[in-house]
Amino acid sequence: MTEAYVSVQDEVKTTGPLTTESGAPVADNQNSETAGIGGPVLVQDQLLLEKLAHFNRERIPERVVHARGAGAYGTFTVTADVTKYTRAKFLAEIGKETEVFLRFSTVAGNLGAPDAVRDPRGFSLKFYTEEGNYDLVGNNTPVFFIKDAIKFPDFIHTQKRDPYTGSQEADNVWDFWGLSPEATHQVTWLFGDRGIPASYRHMNGYGSHTFQWNNEAGEAFWVKYHFKTDQGIKNLTQSEADKLAGADPDSHQRDLREAIERGEFPTWTVQVQIMPVEDAANYRFNPFDLTKVWPHEDYPPIEFGKLELNRNPENIFAEVEQSIFSPAHFVPGIGPSPDKMLQGRLFAYADAHRYRVGINADHLPVNRPHATEARSYGRDGHLYDGRHGRAKNYEPNSFGGPVQTDRPLWQASAVSGVTGDHVAPSHAEDNDFVQAGNLYRLMSEAEKERLIANLAGFIAKVSRDDIAERAIDNFRKADEDYGKRLEAAVQALRG
Ligand code: HEM
User: Fold this and answer.
1) Residue 454 falls in the annotated catalytic set
2) Per-residue pLDDT reduced to its tens digit, 332-379
3) Which fold has domain 148-179+433-495?
4) Best substitution site from 200, 345, 354 to test ligand 1's pocket, by max atoms within 8 Å of Cβ?
């Protein structure tokens, strides 16, 4: 042992002897064991081997999307009576509080990517309710780029690294968007002012999809969730973000943790848009199309809750990296809609969790129910903790094990027609451009200028004219002026 090491240890009160993973006291954590002084290292130095082997296994696969994120615990409080719409117990009374865990993220970047980038932000919320965990795995945008889950892997491939260059490529991004006109609305949103939030605290969250609520009487409603930031919306311009991303890659993660440490707990006002099921068939937009919003004049948002984040996780790996959220985690009174994107997501997340964290991921402290317990007949597998003891592992049984309730979480929906690879139905005012054009026309002149500059800066990097032209054409279809200005701005940059 070196003298310096001994003197530092003498000053600090330790928590007792250091041990191996199996609990045996460690004599020397500085020098590995050798055959003689200066000789080769011995296999019997099990501490050395254990440390090196454990270190090699510290990583688990990062999330295939939304790899980069930060989380915090908090409370959801009901502020209005919604019992005529849903029988979910955590929403049953005004003033009722439910513990939550919220993970924010960016989408395309890998685990070490900077926070201050132009990208949607994930808004994954886990409500630890007394009827099981309810996960709402949303974004900071009310819409999305595509409307069928079958396109998701292709879409994400264009956002991530090219197989040859190993970088994100403007060619791939704009080729896919140009060939997927339904993306025009979300792309307009993303390249507008809200495309780079100043922090996770200064942005809204949205459930984005349409979900079903159902009440005690068995009546169903279609709903959309909105989480409006009480901190106010604050964004970064492209050049502010470029500087911040370089100077402080952890900007958003740090901002959230430090605000909570200061006792400045961020809050969001929670709203819901409610559509009677009878309206859906004849609504002017397909209400299950994720590239469309329901304009507020059609279905005004109703405030029903307050979300507050007030506790930082103690251990980022255990509580953030290993946290799992699934759009299929519903509770009684809440269920899916036939949105084709949502239907794909109902499969994708739990499948990702089994690969990324393991079959017993739901048993980890951050993931398991906190206000009730899971009582299933699922057993064993990697890292099973023996929680079921000697209880029977089959059902039905005559030994008093848990039994089914005979009441589905959500109401059945009527369906008709024949199976097939059907395009989602179009309603009276539907097309891929109408809401993108409306959003553009809502912007102030200064916002339009920033939008055009942001888009043009990226489209100008495309190497082929046909890809750039097809991309611009979609914006022209949304609004003639939008397309004309974009074309001129791209031409000016490309020369
Ligand atoms: C069919 C389309 C989609 C598919 C197949 C898909 C798939 C996935 C997968 C596999 C993950 C990683 C999960 C994990 O490893 O734990 C993920 C993460 C995530 N996705 Fe999606 N996604 C889709 C669309 C969306 C949409 C539309 C939204 C938002 C409205 C969204 C929000 C998120 C968020 C917030 C996360 C991060 C979850 C976390 O914090 O752990 N995704 N997605």
Assistant:
1) no
2) 999 999 999 999 999 999 999 999 999 999 999 999 999 999 999 999
3) Hemocyanin, N-terminal domain (1.20.1370)
4) 345
